[in-house]
Structure formats: C-alpha cells, structure tokens
Amino acid sequence: MSTRVYLIIIAVLASLAAVFAALWVLTFMNSMEWAINYDALNLCYQTLQTQYSKMQSQYYDIVRSLSSSNSYPQLPNARLNTRNHR
C-alpha cells in the first residue's frame, strides 16, 4: 500500500482516539458525582456515528482507488477454456 493510504488510516485512527477522549471527558469530568451525563453521551454517540460514516467513505475511496489502479496482481491465465482440458 502507498504512503497516502497509511496516512489516511493513521488520521482516521487519530480522529477516533480524539472522539473517545471527548467521550471520557464529557461523561466523567463534566458531572461532579461521576454519574453519566446523558446529554454528553448522546452528543458523543452522534459524533461517533459521524466519524464512522467518514471512515466508511474513506475506506471505500481507498478500495476504489486501489481497484482502479493496477495494484492487485492479475493472473494471466485466470480464464482458461475448460474444453481444452477434457
């Protein structure tokens, strides 16, 4: 895989780590009794959904770019005529 693909994967993982850090901060540090702050949890859930959809679209972009280029090895005799092997 190319360097661009690795950089995209690292950026996606870093954004997920930031979302989980925000989830921890909002749920535990905002409330004095260390109870779950449901508004913050809902906000983080929506943020996670957004990040997941971005990750999914980036993944499909990577797969599409790899499949459109000649990155995958092509087998030269992948379509053999079965009539010749009787």
Structural description of this entry:
By secondary structure, the protein is mostly helical. The protein has a domain at 3-61. 67% of the residues lie in helices and 0% in strands. The protein has 2 helices and no strands. The protein has helices spanning 3-29, 38-68. Helix 1 packs antiparallel against helix 2 (38-68). The longest helix is centred in the middle third of the chain and has 31 residues, at 38-68. It is elongated, with a radius of gyration of 22 Å. The mean pLDDT is 72.
Q: Tally the helices: what do you get?
A: 2
Structural class label: mainly alpha
- Shape estimate: elongated
Task: Tell me the span between the first and last alpha carbons.
Answer: 41 Å
Short description:
The protein is mainly alpha-helical and 86 residues long. It is built from two helices and no strands.
Question: Which structural traits does this protein have?
Answer:
86 residues; mainly alpha; 2 helices; 67% helix
Topology:
Blueprint: H1 3-29, H2 38-68
